[in-house]
Amino acid sequence: MERPHAAAGVPAGRNLDLGRLRAHHRLMLRIRALEETALRGLAEKQVFGAIHPSIGQEAVAAGVVAQLLRDDILLSTHRGHGHTLAKGASAGAMLMELLGRAGGVCGGKGGSMHIADFGVGMLGANGVVAANIVIAAGAAHAIRLQGGARIVCCLFGDGAINRGPFLEGLNWAAAFRLPVLFVCEDNGFAATTRAAALTAGPGASARARALGVPAEEVDGNDVLAVEAAAAALIAAVRGGGGPRLLHARTYRLTGHTAADAAAYRPADEVAAARARDPIALAAAWLAEAGVPEAEIAADRAAAAAEMAAAYDAACAAPFPDAAAAFRDVQDIGSPAEMPF
Amino acid sequence: MERPHAAAGVPAGRNLDLGRLRAHHRLMLRIRALEETALRGLAEKQVFGAIHPSIGQEAVAAGVVAQLLRDDILLSTHRGHGHTLAKGASAGAMLMELLGRAGGVCGGKGGSMHIADFGVGMLGANGVVAANIVIAAGAAHAIRLQGGARIVCCLFGDGAINRGPFLEGLNWAAAFRLPVLFVCEDNGFAATTRAAALTAGPGASARARALGVPAEEVDGNDVLAVEAAAAALIAAVRGGGGPRLLHARTYRLTGHTAADAAAYRPADEVAAARARDPIALAAAWLAEAGVPEAEIAADRAAAAAEMAAAYDAACAAPFPDAAAAFRDVQDIGSPAEMPF
Amino acid sequence: MAQMSYLDAVRTALAQEMRRDPAVWAVGEDLGRGGVFGQYRGLVEEFGPARICDAPISEAAILGVAVGAAMLGTRPVVEMRFADFALCAMDELVNQAAKARFMFGGQARVPIVVREPIGMWRSSAAQHSQSLEAWYAHVPGLIVACPATPADAAGLLRTAIRSDDPVVFMEHKNLWGLEGEMPDDPDHCIKFGAARRVRAGRDVTIVSWSAQVHVCAAAAETLAAEGIAAEVIDLRTLWPWDRAAVFASVGRTGRLLVAHEAVAVGGFGAEVAATVAEQRAAALRAPVRRLGAPRALIGYAPPVEDAVRVTAPMIAAAARAMVAGQ
Amino acid sequence: MAQMSYLDAVRTALAQEMRRDPAVWAVGEDLGRGGVFGQYRGLVEEFGPARICDAPISEAAILGVAVGAAMLGTRPVVEMRFADFALCAMDELVNQAAKARFMFGGQARVPIVVREPIGMWRSSAAQHSQSLEAWYAHVPGLIVACPATPADAAGLLRTAIRSDDPVVFMEHKNLWGLEGEMPDDPDHCIKFGAARRVRAGRDVTIVSWSAQVHVCAAAAETLAAEGIAAEVIDLRTLWPWDRAAVFASVGRTGRLLVAHEAVAVGGFGAEVAATVAEQRAAALRAPVRRLGAPRALIGYAPPVEDAVRVTAPMIAAAARAMVAGQ
Ligand SMILES: Cc1ncc(C[n+]2csc(CCOP(=O)(O)OP(=O)(O)O)c2C)c(N)n1
Ligand SMILES: Cc1ncc(C[n+]2csc(CCOP(=O)(O)OP(=O)(O)O)c2C)c(N)n1
Ligand SMILES: [Mg+2]
Ligand SMILES: [Mg+2]
After folding, report:
1. Which CATH number is associated with domain D2-182?
2. pLDDT digits over A126-163, tens only?
3. Which atom in ligand 1 lies closest to the alpha carbon of residue A127?
4. Do D274 and C274 count as a contact with CB atoms less than 8 A apart?
5. Which among A6, C83, C274, D21 could bridge A12 via Cys, Cβ 3.0 to 4.6 Å?
6. Is the pTM higher than 0.95?
7. Can you tell me the distance from the alpha carbon of A154 to that of A83, in angstroms, rounded to the nearest whole number?
8. Do A191 and C29 count as a contact with CB atoms less than 8 A apart?
9. Nearest to residue D99, comparing CAs of D192, D165, D146?
10. A7 touches B at CB < 8 Å
11. Which CATH number fits domain D196-323: 3.40.50.300, 3.40.50.920, 3.40.50.261, 3.10.350.10?
């Protein structure tokens, strides 16, 4: 289906692929439901460590990550649930991980901050801001050495661009013309600090360009705009054009972690951002395009039901045994064989 | 004396201050003589560690550092003899340091790579590339906290702009609008590697601008051009305009260290660079401006004599005693009082 | 004496030092909103944003800036947020801060305090739970403090801020909420290198630091009920460390057990045990003994996390065996 | 067997491994011109710039890139140039490389070799002379090799390159020129955790590693002339380390002296000494003893540099005193 959209907030001048929009919307609903379930898990003391929700930022995961091929590589951050799910990880195994269960993607040993699913090319969230950027350059370097058309996608926040690895990783990727799409997911905050206040100069895109990495900016709450921008950049990267950066502006609707009430933000700012909730925007476009409200509600309910069932399953699943602490540390000199 | 210079290589369209040029020329001669003496010391096994000569780069020291006030702060690199001398350190105490003598600027404990003279605001060479950049931002941060019109000047090489502290230090200085002049002394090489080959994007100035630091480029072998550019940037910094970067293009006439034959460079490249030796350029301008060749030769001889005398004095001076190894480590828990 | 949490104790001590000396300032991420654990709460309101300075996520800059600012005579208190992130600033700490004074022949002084919250805490997993105090104890030029109580945290922080040399100040995340007595004197400084006898006993000396001290004290309680009198010594600082106190105690008890949360292999317990074995062999009625984490990583799931904990029963069992001559 | 320098031995072994396994590549600064010490000389000519990969001055990237490239199945050999510069990549090494396999529940493997030239060498001063092997031994997930001879350097490098876990490979700068026998077999791998008996003796066990092994051997020579038979053991790897060999030797000699170039406080000698004191107390006829550098920095001037050296006379004196029962 194709039609122009101008009036009711649907991005103008765009040919709407309703099927894709619907898929994006469903994925965003699933991400939202997954994270709301994680928060429920925290409240119910089933989830243990810190949770950094990406609520309000789902359009970046859906618009960028869902464009990658299964074989492509993804590196994410502490706020990586959405990216991981978008890359194809199982919600059940992810929730098991958040609940520290043996059946989790990392056997319960990583938790939210180290969520990973190498089976779908998701090489890990990271507990250290910006650390994933140089690792991503390395994954791309390996692809270069090995040949093949795979690419790497590396997401990080607006706060991460002030750490050295941002420069070192982008410089490396550009100097070696490696296949990486860097995505700066700019939610306005570095924890409780407004990132812009301590970020000198024009920001992520200008920095990238100065490092030889062409960059684009996009409204990160508009999943179709994100998809279009990402698709163009991914094509360039996959075509051997070297690294690209996408700077997606969005907003973190929650606090930095579940424990952060985010009282440092003016209420009207948050209200304005809520009005541009990427899921609500997509739903409105669907409705306007003629998708019945009941179908949209059904999608919403399905996502919630999927995550509730996964949560129940996780709650019922066993924890790893203590011996798991000594597995996968190292082969030679392992604590399993060399107790101190 | 003022006159335009166009013909014999004297920079055109510039009012020549002959007194200043002569002072620059003398300083550059002293730097050259100091380093040639250091190399002699190496050959004579009086100098111990690695020596990184700045031969061919003297115009940056003379054109930038000599513009600073005594109270201003300087941070330098492993290739810092020229900067240190230009800031006002005593050549005698510097040579004593290179010879590891107790009378050296650092008591013989630092050597070439850690040469420093806090008495003239020279807060140290550094053995770690780019490490001085964040320290410089910190010195400027202290000046901001303390008040006063002092500024900080931080020099580093073209290779240093690929390390994280370049981004972190410039971002910091710009975010806090601190009084720092950053100087990228671009001699074309990072040790034996052509820096440009592994530096993506347009280079130091573009990176600086993207980090909110206005930048200028200059011919780093033209001491008058360097001085003019530095003077303008220093005025902006001292006036509260925040940090600036000067990108000075020059050439390292020697190998990376005295031990490096630099066989990786084509002979014609080196010959072309030699033809633009900053000292020879300045001498030619002086001659053209009417300074008798004999006076120029006398300046040259004076510099050589000064360093030879300083070298002889250093050779005759005592080494630090072994107890110096335990002094100035720390007050509490010092190895002097708590032998292991 | 006021009753106060460990967190409030360090917060109070920092505020007092900032009132006392205008050269003192703090720098780190999110400090203006109280810091990640609330340990800076209220300070920006009193001291303003120049002295409670928000930083970008830029640990190398935070530490490097502190080094430069310290060289010019200010006294920065550097917040690393989690000790793990200090690894992003290791050159600045070890190659720069620790060496500048010596390397420049005494011309530089680097009076910085580097706060590094350590330890296991609420399933924080492998990158947010480390205790690397042994690293810093091995680095000449650094002082290392690991306070276990509110009063010690305050008293050692004051000494650290007044120190003219760099101090790595390791607060244990699990202690933030611990309540204790806090001396009223705003000048109450605790000397570096003076251990605290937590409990006297004649049968075995248990040496520890940071949160593990409380685990040792609990073990001593258990042992006391069995008639074994354990002397518990809290080193408080690892460099300098109070050899005299440990030697004196071992001289009385004839037995040394060192227990810490960090990995046993290469942990600071090895230094204490080796020193006593070398220098007080004649006093020993049993071989020295160490307890620390296995050389394993710290996992997220509670059973995995718990598998690397040194518990009170483990300490009691070790002490019991030593006293029984096993 | 060929006679070969330590430098040529590692260069040869690396070339052999690169011929054997196309997944192996090396990355670091100046490698295309042979590396800073010439240890990569000739390799770019054979393997090309993709596999002998020049890097920008960007240690965090070099190591981080290696981690990512290793996760995808390549086997990077990472050159840090001087061990001191690895401090610029400590997050990448300790928080990422060492933890990835565990943290991700076994999904990641990080087969990297991190070459870190260590030690005092020609007045290189405080920022180019450090020996921080004890740090790495304390980090779960890492293997630590410190070869002392050309054959060991080659054999351990092969094992390191074939290891599926990260290895910190510490070459001593002062050993580059050391000549020795090198086995011809390009598959000659030396097991991690297998010490080498440098010299047999019944009176005292001297444990060491890296360049210090040769100092210990010289001391043993002196002692032999006096009728004291010292057994010298080269650990070769610090993690895993060969407890069995050390225990067996101490079982015979009843005396343990550990000597290393690194700072004694918190050095790996503490681990060895503490372990023996704990687990072999009954075998000891004298207290364990350690020799390492004072907790001081390394200065430029030769007398200052020499002041922190552990010398053969110091080792001989310590051993002599132990045997004499002092
Ligand atoms: C090196 C490092 N410093 C500090 C932190 C603590 N921290 C975790 S997330 C965060 C904010 C990150 O901001 P940004 O990069 O914008 O990502 P966002 O949280 O907004 O998604 C901070 C400071 C960390 N994890 N790593
Ligand atoms: C962090 C770090 N990496 C590597 C080195 C080794 N090194 C010393 S100087 C140098 C080249 C520096 O190049 P550049 O910054 O351009 O300065 P130049 O030597 O050209 O003056 C290198 C790689 C170092 N000292 N520090
Ligand atoms: Mg953000
Ligand atoms: Mg250069």
Report:
1. 3.40.50.970
2. 999 999 999 999 999 999 999 999 999 999 999 999 99
3. 25
4. yes
5. A6
6. yes
7. 10
8. yes
9. D165
10. no
11. 3.40.50.920
